[in-house]
Design a protein that fits this description.
The complex is a heterodimer of chains A (247) and B (368).
Chain A lengths: L6 E10 L2 E11 L4 E6 L5 H8 L7 E6 L2 E2 L4 H6 L1 E5 L10 H11 L4 H14 L15 H12 L6 E5 L7 H16 L3 E5 L3 H6 L2 E6 L2 E6 L1 H8 L4 H9 L7
Parallel strand pairs in A: 3-8, 3-9, 6-7, 7-8
Antiparallel strand pairs in A: 1-2, 1-4, 4-5, 9-10
Helix pairs in contact in A: 3-4, 5-6, 8-9
Chain B lengths: L1 H16 L1 H21 L7 E6 L5 H12 L3 E7 L3 H8 L5 E5 L3 H7 L5 E5 L4 H23 L23 H31 L1 H7 L4 H29 L9 H23 L5 H19 L11 H7 L3 H14 L8 H26 L1
Parallel strand pairs in B: 1-2, 1-3
Antiparallel strand pairs in B: 3-4
Classes of the chains: A alpha/beta (247), B alpha/beta (368).
């Protein structure tokens, strides 16, 4: 695994007309890092993530993701990243197997490679005997784990997790984070947005966005020291209180 | 291309899982054909009528017999008093009363003039007019047979021929109508709803960050419904031919090709709607009210366009269903070839291209 940054941005900016949603953000995320991306609603998190995942063309600045340029090589970026969001995880009306086959299929896995990846995944999650069941019948926690594994089925070096644990009980969330750690240990970079400040503590590094800018970025421990706060909750509150933009 | 197939497979799985919708998609044309074919007929057939004649004489009886024997009428009441007429209509026992004056035969023989009065229930004006027309025809026929060989000084003989549909079967009108409406409804509503569903669930986002071309996502969604629409076309044509005994005069391949073209038109409209709204209900509402209603009114299936005021006639030109309905009637009923419908075809092709272009443009704007 090379030690080159997986995400590297320099003054990355996106404006819609007169409104600057993301204002000159610069950061790097390394392989195996769990990069927490925090910010109040409307701070520009979603827009930043859309630019990094190749969905949105930036207005100015530079950025490379998994070694590809966001301006010119968005198709290559899309092929080499994983994405999971809590809003939607899997198709309820398809079986576990069909879901895996579909998402594997759109990332170019087919034939024996797909079969193998499918078996491996089912075995690891101990879902072998559930593979023909509709996803709708699985408990939410299982769905989430399956969904994370499906987002990783093409073995990307970077995974975007957009508020992945909303509406899940603490135990399941804990188990979910164990999976994230395991992936990070294998060298995958995790880019995660969340509203849960206890989850921010789990990250290797956290950036907090306020009004389109990165207001602070460091390890959770360093951030707490810097702001003299007991926990991340206080850090976040101190920073986000000064925001001018609302919802 | 292979990623596209993964998508298409998934869409078919969606449709296949949703057995209820699938059933509706297949059962709807069958049901509509039966309803229009057997229940909702506006043909006059064995309608109940009454005769008012205080003292039936020989002439009256033989005329009544003729009327009763015709396939249009069944006499279910003989009245002797004019007061009974009112009740007959009020109790909805029949739609027409034929009144013969007293001494009908006598007057006919001696005065050379006898009166018959036809009273119709005009709450349904169309049926009433048709029934009166048929009754007049029977009476005129009878009069002619009375005249026999007598030579009149002048005579104008009227001979009528009903072209393309001599038996005046309503199937010739409603089969193309049902076909056009079903395709309009299914093609547009089903595609738009299925795409908007992905937006509502948030899965669209996930599909967009995947390496699949966004346009592919959209087109793969339309494919299963295109196939279902085509199956519906086949069902309707087979039912028309073998259940309703309606001959299909034109070239069947031309008919199918035109139907495929129209399916594309409706799918492109569905895409346009789905790219303009974010909720399934809104998509459904627009498809039903914004498209189904105008199609019903302006296709010419229910109401003749020639009788509409000029502005409405002009509006009818922008309703795609109208053009397809006219194509169907020309090919199916009149047996015409492509040289008669190329203008319609061109218009549909133009509309399809326009809707697709706008839909794709709208889709791209959303992305940036």
């Amino acid at each position: 695994m090379s030690k080159e940054a997986i995400i590297k941005t320099q003054n990355l900016t996106k404006s819609f007309g007169a409104f600057t949603a993301v204002d000159k953000i610069s950061f790097e995320a390394m392989p195996g890092e769990i990069f927490g991306f925090l910010g109040a609603n409307g701070a520009g998190k979603t827009t930043a993530m859309k630019m990094l995942s190749g969905l949105l063309k930036p207005s100015s600045g530079t950025a490379s993701v998994v070694g590809f340029d966001v301006f010119k090589q968005s198709e290559m970026i899309k092929k080499n990243i994983g994405y999971m969001s809590q809003k939607f995880s899997l198709y309820d009306d398809l079986t576990v197997e069909e879901n895996i086959a579909f998402f594997g299929g759109i990332y170019g896995l087919r034939g024996d490679v797909l079969k193998l990846a499918q078996m491996e995944l089912l075995e690891r999650l101990q879902l072998m005997d559930q593979s023909k069941k509709l996803v709708a019948s699985l408990p939410l926690g299982w769905k989430q784990k399956l969904s994370f594994s499906v987002a990783m089925i093409h073995k990307p070096r970077l995974v975007f997790l957009d508020e992945p644990t909303g509406g899940v009980d603490p135990i399941t969330r804990r188990q979910f984070w164990e999976m994230i750690y395991e992936a990070a240990e294998n060298g995958v970079t995790i880019f995660v947005t969340t509203h849960y400040m206890d989850e921010a503590e789990y990250c290797s590094r956290v950036s907090i966005m306020v009004d389109g800018k990165i207001a602070a970025m460091d390890t959770p421990r360093a951030l707490k020291e810097q702001f003299g706060a007991k926990n991340m909750d206080e850090v976040f509150y101190t920073l986000a209180r000064g925001a001018k933009r609302g919802e | 291309m292979k990623t596209f197939l993964a998508f298409v497979l998934k869409e078919f799985q969606h449709v296949w899982r949703d057995k209820r919708s699938l059933f509706i998609l297949i059962a709807m044309p069958v049901m509509l054909m039966f309803i229009f074919g057997f229940a909702l007929s506006n043909e006059v057939k064995n309608s109940n009528i009454a005769i008012l004649c205080p003292k039936p004489d020989e002439e009256v009886l033989s005329l009544i017999e003729k009327i009763d024997q015709s396939k249009y009428f069944t006499i279910n009441k003989m009245m002797h008093n004019p007061n009974e007429i009112e009740n007959y209509f009020k109790q909805n026992k029949g739609k027409m009363v034929i009144v013969f004056e007293n001494d009908f035969a006598d007057k006919l023989q001696h005065d050379k003039l006898a009166n018959v009065q036809l009273i119709g229930d005009a709450t349904d004006p169309n049926t009433a007019t048709t029934m009166i027309g048929y009754a007049q025809g029977i009476i005129a026929d009878y009069q002619k047979s009375l005249l026999g060989e007598t030579n009149l000084p002048y005579a104008i003989q009227v001979e009528t021929r009903m072209l393309y549909n001599p038996q005046l079967l309503s199937a010739y009108n409603f089969v193309p109508g049902v076909m056009a409406l079903i395709l309009t409804l299914l093609g547009t509503m089903m595609t738009s709803v299925s795409i908007v569903k992905e937006k509502e669930f948030g899965s669209m986002e996930l599909l967009l960050v995947s390496p699949v071309k966004p346009i592919m996502v959209i087109f793969s969604k339309a494919l299963p419904y295109a196939l279902l629409c085509f199956i519906d076309v086949l069902i309707i044509l087979l039912m028309a031919r073998y259940v309703l005994d309606m001959p299909i005069r034109g070239n069947i391949f031309l008919l199918l090709a035109m139907s495929v073209l129209f399916i594309f038109t409706t799918l492109s409209l569905g895409l346009l709607i789905s790219n303009s709204v974010d909720q399934q209900q809104v998509a459904m509402f627009i498809s039903l009210v914004g498209l189904m209603m105008p199609s019903l009114i302006f296709s010419g299936f229910m109401f003749p366009i020639e009788n509409m005021p000029k502005p409405m006639q002009i509006i009818s030109n922008i309703v795609p269903t109208k053009w397809y309905f006219e194509i169907l009637k020309s090919v199916m009923v009149k047996g015409l070839g492509f040289s008669y419908i190329w203008k319609h075809t061109l218009i549909l092709v133009g509309m399809t291209a326009f809707f697709t272009l706008v839909a794709v443009r709208k889709f791209k704007i959303r992305l940036s």
